[in-house]
């Protein structure tokens, strides 16, 4: 295991600041979801296609980066990815809300089935199929369990911990510990049986209410994910 971005301080993440990126095998943990796209390209293979499961309070599907994206993510070092700017406004090209559209629109040859489970905060956009919270546990259990799914493509699972917190100022937990345990167990099964090619987890501390709340939720997942 290794820190690709060492955690020096629990600073603001906002739309484009990175405080930590951790990796073990095909699991990445970050505070800012914008790094997820770079992580996927570290584990994907050019000759394959991948299904995408995006679990997040937000769709993360702004198209703001598309006009300015003229890069090769297969060859892009992490620091270049972090520091590449959107030229007209001199701000980071990759933000917490625009990396998915780069994947879908600029690399369509890599894209299989796309599924989202979101609360549509900030946008009504969704992927090809939207899974409601009351169906998510059963869906992932079937998906990564014995039932399997309609194709044999490997999965990218893109998880933001803010999915489990309310949008209200107090940021209350929305789901029971049993719900979270069942979901994380299903994801663990997908990692174990190699159905999941890469798992990216974002802490998103501001959207969870604080670093402390985000880390509490991460710890709940950690017990199941090992």
Question: Could you characterize what this model shows?
Answer:
- The model has no long low-confidence stretch (mean pLDDT 94).
- The chain is an alpha/beta fold and 226 residues long.
- It has helices spanning 36-43, 78-83, 99-106, 133-144, 177-192, 205-208, 211-225; strands at 2-5, 21-24, 27-30, 50-55, 85-86, 91-92, 111-117, 129-130, 155-160, 196-202.
- A hairpin with a 4-residue loop joins β5 and β6 (91-92).
- The two termini are 13 Å apart.
- It has an 8-stranded mixed beta sheet with strand order 1-2-3-10-9-4-7-8, sandwiched between helices. A two-stranded antiparallel ribbon has the order 5-6.
Q: Give a quick account of the main beta sheet: strands, pairing sense, barrel closure.
A: 8 strands, mixed
Rounded average pLDDT: 94
Overall 3D form: globular
Q: What percentage of the residues does DSSP assign to strands (E)?
A: 15-25%
**Any idea how many domains?**
1
Distance between the termini: 13 Å
Low-confidence stretches: none
* Quantity of strands, as a count: 10
Give the helix tally. 7
Placed side by side, the strands forming the largest sheet appear as: 1-2-3-10-9-4-7-8
Question: What series of H and E elements makes up the topology?
Answer: EEEHEHEEHEEHEHEHH
In helices, the fraction of residues equals 25-40%
Rg measurement, Å: 16 Å
Category from helices, strands and their pairing = alpha/beta
């Amino acid at each position: 295991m290794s820190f690709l971005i060492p955690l020096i301080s629990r600073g603001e993440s906002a739309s484009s600041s990175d405080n930590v990126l951790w990796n073990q095998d095909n699991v990445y943990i970050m505070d800012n979801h914008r790094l997820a796209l770079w992580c996927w390209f570290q584990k994907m293979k050019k000759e394959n296609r991948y299904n995408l499961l995006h679990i997040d309070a937000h769709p993360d599907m702004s198209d703001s980066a598309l006009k300015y994206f003229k890069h090769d993510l297969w060859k892009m070092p992490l620091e270049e990815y972090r520091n590449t700017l959107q030229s007209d406004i001199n701000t980071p090209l990759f933000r917490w809300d625009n990396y998915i559209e780069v994947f879908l629109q600029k690399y369509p040859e890599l894209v299989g089935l796309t599924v989202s489970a979101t609360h549509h905060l900030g946008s009504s956009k969704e992927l090809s199929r939207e899974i409601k919270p009351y169906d998510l546990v059963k869906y992932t259990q079937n998906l990564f369990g014995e039932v399997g799914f309609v194709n044999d493509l490997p999965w990218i699972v893109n998880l933001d911990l803010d999915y489990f917190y309310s949008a209200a100022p107090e940021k209350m937990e929305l789901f029971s510990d049993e719900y979270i345990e069942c979901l994380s167990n299903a994801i663990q099964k997908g990692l174990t049986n190699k159905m999941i090619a890469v798992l990216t987890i974002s802490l998103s501390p501001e959207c969870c209410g604080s670093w402390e709340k985000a880390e509490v939720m991460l710890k709940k997942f950690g017990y199941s994910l090992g």
